[in-house]
Amino acid sequence: MKTKLSVNLNKVALIRNGRGGNMPDLIKFAIDCESYGADGITVHPRPDQRHVRYDDLAQLKEVVKTELNIEGYPSDNFMKEVLAVKPHQCTLVPDPPGVLTSDSGWDIDGEKVLLVDIIDSLKTAGIRTSLFIDPDPRQVIAAKEVGADRIELYTGGYANNYFIDKDKAVQSHIDCSKKAEEMGIAVNAGHDLNLDNLRFYSDSLSSLSEVSIGHALICDALYFGIANVISMYKALLR
Ligand code: PXP
Q1: Parallel, antiparallel, or unpaired for β 186-190 and 150-154?
Q2: What is the chain's mean pLDDT, rounded?
Q3: How far is the CA of 151 from the centre of ligand 1 (A)?
Q4: What's the total number of domains in the chain?
Q5: Atom 12 (ligand 1): residue with closest C-alpha?
Q6: How far does CA 180 lie from the centroid of its chain?
Q7: CA of 124 to the centre of ligand 1 (A)
Q8: Whose CA is nearest to atom 1 of ligand 1?
Q9: Minimum CA distance residue for ligand 1 atom 5
Q10: Is residue 89 helix, strand or coil?
Q11: Which distant-in-sequence residues (6+ apart) come within 8 Å of 126 by Cβ?
Q12: From the candidates 34, 44, 51, 81, which is the catalytic residue?
C-alpha cells in the first residue's frame, strides 16, 4: 500500500495568528490541500495555542474528507477537545508545555499507567491511536503492549544525519519497522522530512503507512506553490 501524505497545517495557522485575522483561511487551506492530493491533514494544537487552536478543530473535522490527525500531549484539556471532535487518528506526543517542537518520543514503560488509560478512552471513542516514539525497537514492543494502533517514528535524528551517512541514519528506523510488522502495529513517521530525505526514507522501510510533514512542505510552498509541492512530495512516496 502506498504511503499516505498527511499535511501538517501548524505553520499555516502560525501565519494566520500573526495578524489576528483569518488570512490565510486555515479551513479553506485544508480543503484545498485535499483537492491537490493530500491524503490527510495533521494539526498539533499546543497548550499556548500559537499554531492551530482548539476552536479550529471542529471545523476541520467537518471539512476534512480524507483523514484528520490531531497530535498533542494528552492533557485533560487536549483529551476533552479530541474526544469531542473525534478525529480519525490521535497521535500522542510527550511534549512538555513550552516546547518549540516535538523532538523526542515517549518513554512508554515510564508512562504506562497514563498511556493505557488514555489509549483506552480514545479506542472507546473509535479514534485510532498512534504513539510518537524514538526509533528504538523496545519502544515498538512497549507501544503494542499499551494498546496503540500505530507508532510514529521521530525522524529528526534521521534528517540531521542524512547527509553524513544516510544508511546509518535510517538503520534504527528499518529495525523498528521490522519489529512493528512482527508485532502487527502500523508505522507512521514524521519530523524534518523534506524533498531531499523523503524518498530514501520511504524506500528503506518495508512498511510505512503515513508520513506527516509540515515545516519543510510549507517552506517549499513559498517557492513552488502548495498544489505543486503536494504532488512533489507524493511522487517521493512508494
Ligand atoms: N510529528 C510530530 C509529532 C510533530 O510534532 C511534528 C511537528 O509539529 C511533525 C510530525 C511534523 O514535523 P515537520 O513540521 O518538521 O514536518
Answers
A1: parallel
A2: 96
A3: 14
A4: 1
A5: 191
A6: 17
A7: 26
A8: 190
A9: 102
A10: strand
A11: 86
A12: 44
Name the nearest CA neighbour of 16 among 28, 26, 7.
Answer: 26
Ligand 1, pocket residues at CB < 6 Å:
8, 10, 44, 71, 91, 93, 101-102, 132, 152, 190-193, 212-216
Map grid coordinates 471513542 to a residue: 125
Give the domain CATH number at 154: 3.20.20.70
Q: What values do phi and psi take at 71, rounded to 5?
A: -105, 155
- One of 34, 71, 152, 210 is an active-site residue; which one? 71
pTM of the model: 0.96
C-alpha to C-alpha distance for 148 and 119, rounded to whole angstroms: 7
**Segments forming the whole domain that contains residue 167:** 4-235
Residue 122 to residue 201: CA distance in whole angstroms: 30
pLDDT digits (tens, 9 = 90+) for 35-79: 999 999 999 998 888 889 999 999 999 999 999 999 999 999 999
